[in-house]
Amino acid sequence: MTQLGRRAFAALAAGALALALTGGLAACAGQQAGGGSDQTQQQATTRSFTDSCGREVELPSNITKVAASGPVAQQILLTIAPEDMVGLATKLTDGQAALFDDSVAQLPVFGQIYGGKGDFNKEAVADAAPQLVIDLGEAKKTIKEDMDQLQEQLGIPCVHIETSLDSYDEVYRTLGILLGKEGRAAELSSYCKKAYDEVDGVVSTILESERPAVAYLMGDAGLNAIAKGSFQGAVVDFVASNAIVTEKVSGSGKGQEVSLEQIASFDPQLIVFGPGSIYASAGKDPAWSELAAIKGANYYQVPGEPYNWLSSPPAANEVLGMQWLARVCYPQKFQTGVEDVAKDYFKTFYGHDLSDSELEDLLTGSLPRA
Questions:
Q1: Which pLDDT does position 370 carry in this prediction?
Q2: Residues facing 25 on adjacent strands
């Protein structure tokens, strides 16, 4: 975990502990008072939580209605507390909706605070009356001010919990305490830690100079690149050597536009095309076929269900993506295959048993080549 991540989770751990203790002590005080004073009763129904920004926020002791600030928060919250969500940041695809009760897909769409749209409908959120708005993901430079302003405008508690590839176990534990879902959180946290430790145990033994140079390309023409050092590129940076090195790194989920000549100059040894990109046609296109990775058939398609496994959003789907990409890069170093990982992830995170036909469709163009 980065130094920033460690500081953030040190604060979160303290906040989560304080939240648990404050809620417990307040409840005990209420019981001892026998429902006496209004002040004691008020203490029994609230608790204090310190988020990743260091903001101390007063929250209800029992939270059963939450809203997500954007796609990252939505993706993560849907894996731990879909029944508590009062709305969505983005409409679910058919594939995503199939993993949940019909009521989830029918929730109103509020939009998102950040990103290209920035269309968060504050009036609709206020009407839905969540007890808490949760922002998860990268900490923007203005995150503290943004959370304070949003909380003031809505009159609803708002918290930010920073996420990173190596901290999803901590993220889930924090959410478990926050939402009263400790049991479910423990299951998800354990999975995330085990997955990260397994992949880290392999890649940490491989020198940076010996890792394959990987280009992660997206878009209709395959000319949107996810650069080294970007929040969206965390999996590629962790597992391999990101071939896309630029002076200015874009934080957009679409990456940054590059030319085919630039890609050729980066000379990637392996290319992964995002879902819906040009994986199917790249090998037949004369313009692409001169690239070493294409000529050597060392290119793959990133699986896209229920979300892009590597990014968009860069949320808990990255836990699945890092297991996939590591097995593409170093297939001989793992005792289990991509199929095993996919089945285990879908079962753990969504309670869904992948059928053989679903697995085949899901992994088209994605399996390591012998």
A1: 63
A2: none
